[in-house]
Amino acid sequence: MRTARRWPARAAPKSCSLESGRVFRRVFRPVSLLSVRNVTLRFGGITALQDVSFDVEEGTTSGLIGPNGAGKTTTFNVVTRLYRLDQGDVLIDGRTLLRTPPSRIVGHGIARTFQNVELFPTMTVLENVLVGAHWGSRFERERSVRRRARKALEMIDAEQFADRPASGLPFGTLKRIELARALVSTPRLLLLDEPAGGLNHEEVESLAALLRRIRTELRVTLLLVEHHMGLVMTISDHVNVLNFGRLIASGPPEEIQRNPEVIEAYLGGELEETSA
User: Fold this and answer.
1) pLDDT tens, residue by residue, 204-250
2) d(CA 46, CA 154)
3) How far apart (Å, rounded) are the C-alpha atoms in residues 229 and 194?
4) Chain center to CA of 196
5) Per residue in 12-39, pLDDT tens?
6) pTM, whole model, 2 decimals?
7) Full set of structural domains in the chain with CATH
8) What is the rounded radius of gyration, in angstroms, for the C-alpha atoms of the chain?
């Protein structure tokens, strides 16, 4: 004779507890796209980052500024897992990245550019962009991947150079090609390391317009390290300031421009000029 299967009693959900007839519910708060939590990094006796914490909200543009050696690029290297932390955590959508190897970071929707242009000079522009599509394209048709790469070049207004070798092109164009290589992986979060470095005034203005288009049309969240204060203060929703590996200020651009500690540590009179 078959007996009826008995299921165990269902436990009360962890988000609730019962006490004296009252129900206490857990409050769920929105999770930031990127969270850097109490990050400390040391190289021998040198502390490169000391208890650094900040958030990047999805759909925003955030600046990360500070003097040379403040820890800005080091922070990018921490986020992309090139460096192992001594303390703290880095989270994407509330999930830690500390168990993710550098080769898998792009799988979490994170892409980056570098201070120095890192392209293959003997390869064509299209081939250089296709390098960025390598991850995740294993089961994608080559025609589809190439179409995606050409759309990235179209976004940066460089599709006319697709079949030319990267060598010999203007520096500003090479910077945009590197940006296209990052975009072809369809990131949610794009880390830009000094994108305006080496550009003239007109090129910086064009870059600002391009970054706005990337954010609105591709819905990409941006975090940029930059020394060009005009660019940072113009396009950023939020600015974080590092000095000697410590976060000394965090807030909207207009607040950062008036912060005495920021002015003393790094920016000086340049803030007044950018706000004029």
Assistant:
1) 999 999 999 999 999 999 999 999 999 999 999 999 999 999 999 99
2) 44
3) 11
4) 16
5) 444 433 344 444 344 445 689 999 999 9
6) 0.84
7) 32-109+190-276 (3.40.50.300), 119-186 (no CATH)
8) 22
